[in-house]
Amino acid sequence: MTISHNVGLKVVAKGIERVEELELLSQYGCDIAQGYYICEPLAGDELLGWYETTVQK
After folding, report:
1. How far apart are CA 22 and CA 44, in angstroms?
2. Is the pTM of this model over 0.70?
3. With contact defined as beta carbons under 8 Å apart, do 31 and 11 qualify?
4. Is 26 helix (H, G, I), strand (E, B) or coil?
5. For the chain, what are the domain ranges?
6. Which 8-state DSSP code applies to residue 8?
7. Please, what is the Cα angle at 24 between 1 and 21, to 5 degrees?
């Protein structure tokens, strides 16, 4: 991740399914994560509701 950060890039982890994975990636400096642990796939109209109740708390 250091190389990516040194050239101004963000690091995205995909497929996170367990809290342990998210914690480890956070320790390594991962910038963004996605996967079933964070939220299952949603239809577009459901995404806004999820965002407003989960992320914007």
Report:
1. 24
2. yes
3. yes
4. helix
5. 2-55
6. T
7. 110
User: Residue 26 is encoded by which pair of tokens?
Assistant: 């956070």
Q: Which residue has the higher pLDDT, 27 or 54?
A: 27
Task: State both tokens at 36.
Answer: 């079933």
Residue with tokens 């999820």: 50
| CB hemisphere CA count around 18 (13 angstroms) | 3
In DSSP terms, 33 is beta-bridged to 13
Q: According to the model, what pLDDT value does residue 57 have?
A: 64
29-50 pLDDT per residue, tens = 999 999 999 999 999 889 999 9
pLDDT for position 56: 76
- CA–CA separation, 22 vs 48, rounded Å? 23
